[in-house]
Amino acid sequence: MSQFTKSIIPVAVLVIFWFIPAPEGLSVQAWHFLAIFFAVVVGLIIEPVPAALIGFTGISLVAVFGLISDSAKANISWALSGFSNTVIWLIFAAFMFALGYKKTGLGRRVSLIMIKYMGKSSLGLGYAVAFSDLVLAPFMPSNTARSAGTIYPVANNIPLIFNSTPDNEPRKLGAYISWVAIATTCVTSSMFLTALAPNLLAVDLINQGSGNLISWSAWASIMLPLMIPLFLLTPWLVYVVYPPTQKTSPEAPAWAAKELEKLGSITKKELLMATLALVALLLWIFGKSVGIHSTTAAIAVVSVMVLSGIITWDDVISNKSAFNVLIWFASLVAMASGLKKVGVLEWIGSGAETYLSGLTPTMLILSMLILFFVLHYFFASTTAHTTALMPIFIAIAMKLMTPEQLLPFSILLAGSLGLMGIITPYATGPSPIWYGAGYISQARWWGLGAIFGALYLAAILIGSFIFI
């Protein structure tokens, strides 16, 4: 698709929906807002320009046309409301954690230690890659930074030791490691609230739509019992379903030991980074009991990171990825809140109630979880998926579920966001990196994605029987 075509499609969507008469029960103002929302979602999917600019343009158009209120001040207050959102700043702070791991070399050291002590067999290497991701996951809400930025540079060197390349015996080791890496990062992305940025976005949208504020510990109480067995099973299951032809790998620990020698002894900054990450995690889990908000803990730790020299202030203000996500998510949070303000969510919920009220509670919950998961085949961005569908699904759940059902359902719905990244080569941030390594063909990736996607979805559905 040409750049011009990509650019014209969102505009065409906006114009077409804008001039279609508003459906019964929805005001013209609300319909025009929905037209802009549809255009933003389409733009996020095909990305004719950076995603942050798409969201920023969306809130600008809504404010210019005065679709939220007749008051100009109320419109601009709404447009900028996402920038005061605590979740957005938690995500921003966590990007600084990722930078600290990279600058100190702690992330690389963790991966090499895992390979040194677990990598004597191919299966052991799979678990080494998996546990490297697990150790970093609670502190890195970008699975792209974690898997593609930290794990990939280390893990991608391992197959080369055995002369396994995309063009020469990819199944010897490279294909196995690639699939274990992407499969386990999808599991860890769902395991912890802070392991995937869209998790935090989803939690904020759930809070806006239902009033339920999901804490780190509430998320863990449901997702950890489901994800720990899945995490432990994944490298072994890949070994069975898509086995490497190289079964032993004594060279890998030796290579990792040499790389660790090059790194030298662990530094004071690495130890401090590990300590600060642990402090942040403890405050995310227990901070509420001592009156410390999770975002307060995050920005305080970032301040210490800068003051102690782990990262510099120039690192903070020049971190394009962090500021890009801040603007992007702040815009999307505002757009999603606008759906409720103009009455779109109430209208959708009422319409869904008419069609779905005949389903049993169990069938309703299962149907919504399956549909939310499967619809990700049409999205190349977990963030776009979250923005487009989470407010709608929560609006329907508000109409048809009891308060006791709503909270665990919301956690399972948001918790599926990481898992659904396994289904296609474009489903989550690290996927294009591991797919681009060239060890797994597109047809094989789709096939494995269907198998593991079904397994991962089954874990969520089992969770609905246990927790709802």
Nearest-integer average pLDDT:
90
Q: Which strand-content bin applies to the residues? A: under 5%
Taking the sheet with the most strands, its summary is: none
Anisotropy-based shape: globular
Radius of gyration, whole Å = 23 Å
Q: How many structurally independent domains?
A: 2
Q: Structural class given helices, strands, pairing?
A: mainly alpha
Kindly report how far apart the N and C termini lie. Answer: 44 Å
Total count of helical runs of at least 4 residues = 23
Order of helices and strands: HHHHHHHHHHHHHHHHHHHHHHH
Kindly state the percentage of residues in helix. over 70%
The number of strands is: 0
Low-confidence stretches: none
Can I get a quick summary?
With 468 residues, the chain is mainly α.
Give a structural overview.
The chain crosses the membrane at residues 7-23, 29-46, 53-72, 78-101, 176-201, 213-239, 271-287, 294-313, 325-343, 355-378, 406-426, 446-467. Belongs to the SLC13A/DASS transporter (TC 2.A.47) family. DIT1 subfamily. Its main location: membrane. InterPro entries: CitT-rel, SLC13A/DASS. This protein has helices at 3-19, 28-46, 51-65, 72-79, 86-104, 106-118, 122-136, 143-155, 158-161, 174-191, 197-210, 216-241, 251-263, 268-286, 294-307, 313-317, 320-341, 344-356, 361-374, 382-400, 403-419, 431-436, 442-467. It has 468 residues and is mainly alpha-helical. It has two domains: 1-84 and 323-340, no CATH class; 87-320, no CATH class. The longest helix is centred in the middle third of the chain and has 26 residues, at 216-241.
